[in-house]
Amino acid sequence: MPEQISKETVVKVSRLARLSLSPDQAEKMTSQLAGMLEHFRDIDALDLSDVEPMTQPYPLKNVMRQDVEAKSLDRQEVLDQAPAAESGRFRVPPTIGFDV
Amino acid sequence: MQKLVEIVAGVTNGSFTASAVVEEHLGRIKARESEIHAFNLVTADQARETAAKIDDDVKAGKKVGALAGVPIALKDNMCTRGVETTCSSKILQGWKPPYDATVVTKLRQAGAVVVGKTNLDEFAMGSSTENSAFGPTKNPLDISRVPGGSSGGSAAAVSAGFAAASLGSDTGGSIRQPAALCGVVGVKPTYGTVSRYGLVAFASSLDQIGPFTSDVRDAATLLEVISGHDPMDSTSIPQSAPSLVSVLEHGVKGMRIGRVTDLPEGCEPDVLARLEAAFDALRKAGATIVDVKLPSLQYCLTAYYLIAPAEASSNLARYDGVRYGNRVEATDLNAMYAATREAGFGEEVKRRIMLGTYALSAGYYDAYYGKALKVRRLISDDFARAYKDVDTILTPTSPSTAFKFGSKTDNPLAMYLCDVFTIPTNLAGHPAMSVPFGVGADSMPVGIQVLATTMGEQAMFKVAAELERAS
Amino acid sequence: MSDDAVLPNGWQLVVGLEVHVELATKTKMFSASANRFGDEPNTNIDPVTLGLPGALPVLNKHAVELAMRIGLALNCKVQPCTFHRKNYFYPDLPKAYQITQYDHPLNIDGFLMLPGEVRIGIERAHLEEDTGKSTHFGGSSGRIHGSDYSLIDFNRAGVPLVEIVSRPDIRTSEQARQYVAELRAILLAVGASDAKMEEGSMRCDVNVSVHKPGTPFGTRCEIKNVNSIRAVGRAIDYEARRQVDLIEGGGTVRQETRHWDDASGRTETLRTKEDADDYRYFLEPDLVPLVPEQSWIDQVRAALPVLPAARRNALAELCGIDKDGESAFVVVERGQDDYVRQVVGNGGDPRRSVIYVQQAFAEQGATPKVPAKDLAALTILERDAKVTSTQAKTLLADLIEAGGGDVAAIAAKRGFEALDTGALEAMVDTAIAAEPGAWQKYCDGEEKALGALVGAIMKSSKGKADGKAVTAILQSKRQK
Ligand SMILES: [Mg+2]
Ligand SMILES: [Zn+2]
Questions:
Q1: Structural domains of chain C ordered from first start
Q2: Which residues in chain C have their CB less than 8 angstroms from residue B232's CB?
Q3: Chain B, 228-257: which have a CB under 8 Å from a chain A CB?
Q4: Partner of B155 for a Cys bridge, out of B142, B182, B253, C374, CB 3.0 to 4.6 A?
Q5: pLDDT digit string (tens) for C136-164?
Q6: Count of CB atoms within 10 A of residue B298's CB?
């Protein structure tokens, strides 16, 4: 059973999720998450060793499509919806550092 | 107010026009929408155009669809080509999808008239519509109360007569709970029955689209139209949808109805009283009430609030300010991501993204997400055992009637408890629907939830129709 | 093997490769948008490709079949499998997750044989989707660091990939190069990919570590951006030396991702393990399991062509050449081994047939225009010394130019009658008389002197003399 969630963990998770939290927000988030996780401990007592995880409600398999091409979306219609575009492409700010 | 089936009949046989029907609904919108705020967008011009086209077709003697002239409202998390689709989030505000959701295509082909996009809790995360970035929707029956959520706008639109029917999405009760709180019928079909293609994902393994209507027959009619296999959705069940309208008059004689003996606590007594009244009515109509045990039901909330946020944290990662939606500019990429998502998402959405990211992250997966998937199996197994003995199960839809604004906003867990009766069926993938069945102590409507097993919609609708007759 | 590859002081190189190949499908892995290289940016896009809200993936059956071909050609077990989401933020990754295979990949536990019966284990070959393409602008280098902004094209996003992961069984940079070359040959043979490293449809990540035999493997570094077979060898040699120098200098190797810079011939740190992402893998809820039926697997296996190694063996046997040599490799890679077989079947000299094809048919493809019987005739003319090897080359060019023809007639038209032995002997005698100094040196065992004598004869015969025949006469005269 994991120990109580720490503010450091919350900050790390927020970075993973690309949500910047102010120190105050991180504090509040930590206590809210801790409260929920505490509540969620009700399942810790269950013996689940022989239980198959259930990931989907309906047991389908082998759903495939034929390799047949369909029309592309209109580039202009799509780029009109983009926050920034240039030369038929989407524009983004530069990546700093080595995080590629 | 006209029923959906009456509108289709009248428009098709020419006793009145689709245009007249649309104007009548637009008039009601004009009169009360500023007070209710059911819609993020009213598409009046498009609706008039569509209605005129149907009227032309009728005049020309052309065949019209099964929903000809029916004003329908769509939850604003279903993609409509060229028409703003926001999920009630600032991050998507202004976004016009370049494609239609499969359900939208089906509605258009059937001759339905889309009157607007309805308000919701941001990205369908909530039970009161208070989490909308564009302000809450009011319950048309008492505007000091919430309409429920997350499909609060769709429930209110039908309840207020703004549309003859609407579509919502249900991940943990988001159709059934607002239906109960607004006094209308709401159906969550079997997972895989209605295509999710074009439904903005919240939790992919739980989300289903379903109808809101003012009665059971309308719900059956609309569900028949939107159901069916869609090759664009890999989780769509490759079977044709069962006929529902044809079973409504069958009655419940000989049917076995489950009463859950270990129902989670916290339900208001007047709501429980209505549940007993429902059992009485069904017994009177010839059904047998059978006690069933669902011991894992108590763990549903935990399983759900780990699984749904986990999937959501991944589904909502695409809102990064690159391809669509809104961006907050910054000097480098990661700063842009963080600023965009910080400004674009509301509190509840951030909370669930955080919870889900945490539940999936290295070192915590097995303790949280992995365990929740196993609990999901336990719940499914519980149901499987119960359905050996019964055809349907009855529970309250919501532990309470519509509550006052702000009464649960400070405590996320209290809000989560609103879904305690609706969540289990999403985890199991089963169908369930809410039918209005009298009122509570506050004179607000009480909804009774009818549950059935996978593809058990016919049994469910038989019972729902019987309850409607008895109410 | 280059000198760099030999590590000092008994250090042993350990290499594993992860090779990504784009599959030769018409459409993307999970949508009907076109899989085509070189189109205008963002013209092969659809809701799935762009990760639009509400879009859902549907698996491309042909991509699965091509992946099965790869797996079966690499002796893998094809098994029931699932898809996971690998979550990370990057602007060319539209959904902010890549759909890939995690704990249950389609193909597992195979192997690939290198020359000299060296067996390289294949851990897995799994299906996944490609990302879009970022281009960096501004700044000085046009590289990512220091750029002002980037532009993104999503045409490549969602293109089906198979990632082939070898076991760390490779011990020299030469083996690594052979592995990539052999893998590429197999991919081409089974039609799974066009495997163009220069266009990025085949991309190599190289895991390099060093250790002393008998001790555990060292910490490995993953090298990205290794875009040619030659670069695979160079990058490994550089990186192995770097690691050995680091360790011998008292340092330790950090687990990190490094970037190969082909221009400078160096690897450099891209990111270290500490800032590695936590990918939060979980089962993709929008897809269902893939359980290939045995009948489907059998069908795909039965339809596999003869693989390059077997074809090289057969060709080598037919032509009397080295099965691991350049000729066999090149001719089979071009798919011209069947043609060589036809030439030999038409009476062609086996060895000459394969050499001609290797040397002159690079542009011809699997079905050269020169009729097999014409090439066969040419090999016979040369074998029987009716024309010299120089003349044969000219005639071969004539055949290619004209798309075939009567070789004897062309030779006659060009005046290529070979000199008879009597005439040759007379010319040799004349040359010895004319160059007595050179002849004396040659007789004293100075082989270099031979050149002057042969040159003189070739000149006086106006190229009609066959160099080999002349040399043979000179040798026999010296022995007398
Ligand atoms: Mg890899
Ligand atoms: Zn990969």
A1: 8-302 (no CATH), 315-414 (no CATH), 421-479 (1.10.10)
A2: 56, 58
A3: 231, 234-235, 237-238
A4: B182
A5: 988 765 566 678 999 999 999 999 999 99
A6: 16
